[in-house]
Specification:
- The chain is of the alpha+beta class.
- It folds into two domains: 1-135, no CATH class; 138-274, Heat Shock Protein 90 (2-Layer Sandwich).
- It is built from seven helices and seven strands.
- It has a five-stranded mixed β-sheet with strand order 1-3-4-6-5, covered by helices on one side.
- A hairpin with a 3-residue loop joins strand 5 (250-256) and strand 6.
- Helix 1 packs antiparallel against helix 2 (107-134) and helix 5 runs antiparallel to helix 7.
- The chain binds adenosine-5'-triphosphate and magnesium ion.
Length: 284
């Protein structure tokens, strides 16, 4: 009877045991939650990494497709120029040979040959236009700056939309892929101005700054809906963006209700192969 513990002592021990048990359970719960969070975090990081790498893959694929398309265009342009151009020229020579052999009494035949010859001449002209559209050979002959200048003039002539070109880097030469990319971006931007902007004026500017080469195409039209700038359905805009990124550059399109639309492409100065140190006054 004497070594019997008082009942409250027993209760205290039980309470202590219960507390310890609760503590162990809580610690286990916390460990489990921390573990789960860690696993989720690792999975999230892995998913982000996968997303980043597939985005890079897609970007590289887009750049590859653009260069394949440009090469194929060059091949088709050469075939058109060499094969069809030669055939049409020999057709024209043949027609004028026949015409010389005709006697004055064969007037109806002479008329027919004259009309066929005119058709052949216009076919040759269209062929040249198609070939130079496919492969801007003028880029090699004139260089980017003069080509853009003539593009602005042609655009104005075709559409009636006043188009100005200005640059502070008139003598610079660019590597071919950069020149083609800039030219194609300008062509796509001008086509958009003509088709969508309802503008009366457009300005192309190619400016060399300390931090890069800046291309802008601005119009004074109705402005572009922001949703369309990032929409996957805007394939023309996506193509321009991919071309700029493939050059290691950046791309931006901004809408302003009052001023129309402005496209800005920034390209590293390393893409200029001659005239990198050139400065000077604006030329239009
Ligand atoms: N300068 C602009 N002013 C106003 N809206 C524009 C301008 N440029 C583009 N947009 C709008 O953005 C949309 C997407 O342009 P995008 O060039 O991607 O496609 P598109 O011109 O419709 O077709 P394409 O694939 O033949 O270029 C256009 O349909 C037009 O609504
Ligand atoms: Mg377009």
């Amino acid at each position: 009877m004497s070594n019997q513990k008082p009942p409250y002592r027993d209760l205290e021990t039980k309470m202590q045991e219960a507390k310890e048990l609760i503590h162990v359970l809580r610690t286990q719960q916390v460990d489990a939650i921390v573990g789960q969070r860690h696993i989720m975090l690792v999975r999230l990081q892995q998913a982000e990494e996968t997303l980043r790498s597939s985005r890079n893959q897609l970007r590289a694929f887009a750049a590859h497709l653009l260069s394949v398309r440009e090469n194929e265009r060059a091949v088709i342009a050469r075939e058109l120029h060499d094969e069809f151009g030669r055939a049409l020229t020999s057709l024209q020579l043949g027609l004028s040979w026949i015409s010389r052999k005709l006697t004055p009494g064969q007037q109806p035949l002479q008329e027919k040959i004259r009309s066929l010859s005119a058709t052949t001449t216009s076919l040759i002209r269209s062929l040249k236009n198609i070939a130079s559209g496919l492969r801007p050979g003028v880029l090699d002959e004139l260089g980017l700056v003069k080509t853009l200048k003539s593009e602005a003039r042609e655009f104005e002539g075709h559409t009636g939309i006043q188009c100005r070109f200005k640059t502070n880097t008139a003598k610079a030469r660019f590597d071919r892929s950069a020149a083609v990319a800039i030219f194609r971006i300008v062509q796509a931007a001008l086509t958009n101005v003509a088709r969508h902007a309802e503008a009366s004026r457009a300005v192309i500017a190619l400016m060399k700054r300390k931090d890069g080469l800046i291309l802008t195409v601005t119009d004074n039209g109705k402005g572009i809906n922001r949703k369309l700038i990032y929409s996957h359905a805007s394939l023309g805009i996506t193509g321009m963006r991919e071309r700029a990124l493939a050059l290691g550059g950046t791309f931006a399109l901004a809408d302003s209700r009052s001023k129309g639309t402005m496209l800005t492409v920034r390209i590293p100065l390393s893409r200029i192969i001659v005239g990198r140190n050139e400065g000077g006054a604006n030329q239009t």
